[in-house]
Amino acid sequence: MRKFTTPVQSVQQLSINIHDARKAAGLSQEELANETGLSRSWINRLETGKITNPDFNDILSVYKVLHISDTIAYDAPEPESRNDKPVERTIAAHTQAIDQISKLTTPF
């Protein structure tokens, strides 16, 4: 199976990506709804862009069923000296990024 990667820069792009991933998985909206616990009408409204501020947990449920990565990638500064502890700096950067994301009122 071929991997497909595309950036998500808007809810509209998210909607298109979820629709495409559902089709690629061979699932109907009803099947996706059953597997996520969401309604078929919610899936339809999401895929057609009628939901402009989807709940983050609902999106994660869809991602899980469709095997869409929820990984966050970002550039981290290089360690300034040999005395820096890169692993601890990376963990701190990840923790800070997660805290910032959780404070957002609009997840996408």
TrEMBL record:
GO terms for molecular function: DNA binding. SMART domains: HTH_XRE. Residues 18-72 form the HTH cro/C1-type domain. InterPro entries: Cro/C1-type_HTH, Lambda_DNA-bd_dom_sf. This is Transcriptional regulator, contains XRE-family HTH domain. It comes from Bifidobacterium commune.
